Amino acid sequence: MKHLKDIVVESFFDDDIVDTKQLEKTIRAEIKQFLKDNYRGAGKCKISKKPNEDGKYVVDCLRGNLTLDGPLSYLTNDTFIFGEVDGDFDVSWGRKLISLKGAPRKVSNRFACSHCPLLTSLEGAPEEVAIFKCSECENLTSLEGAP
After folding, report:
1. What does the H/E/C string look like for the chain?
2. Which pTM value belongs to this model?
3. pLDDT at 13 over 60
4. Radius of gyration of the chain (CA)
5. pLDDT by residue (tens digit) across 128-147?
6. Which residues lie closer than 8 Å to 116 by C-beta, 6 or more apart?
7. Which residue among 45, 104, 112, 117 is least packed, with the fewest CB closer than 10 Å?
């Protein structure tokens, strides 16, 4: 599977000349669109200016709640991870959700992943959270990874 960064480079830039600032701007725009397409409340999120040491951008949502609003199987793509959410992070009723990988590492209020029939593990769940609710996930076989 190609990374988003590789696709953007192939699509928008000559292989010999890559404008790093333009590349970063384009990738951030793609992340913003992904968030908008899949999460209610994503307009309040901030995307890091540059990727972290793992080559991923960090998305922090420090003003409000973020709710899954799309048919995702993964919470993020290979270009970004969530950092902090100051509010709720709700991926309940994620019928296609198979993993919590990429979930925010910190949620100031409630993290909910209920009614996700394809979840088998809580690996990737937040490290810090005030309220953790994950019920009615009939294929959940382990609580490993729960905060």
Report:
1. CCCHHHHHHHHHCCCCCCCHHHHHHHHHHHHHHHHHHHEECHHHEEECCCCCCCCCEEEEECCCCEEECCCCCCCCCCCEEEEEECCCEECCCCCCCCCCCCCCCEEEEEEECCCCCCCCCCCCCCCEEEEEECCCCCCCCCCCCCC
2. 0.82
3. no
4. 16
5. 999 999 999 999 998 889 99
6. 91, 92, 93, 94, 95, 97, 134, 137
7. 117
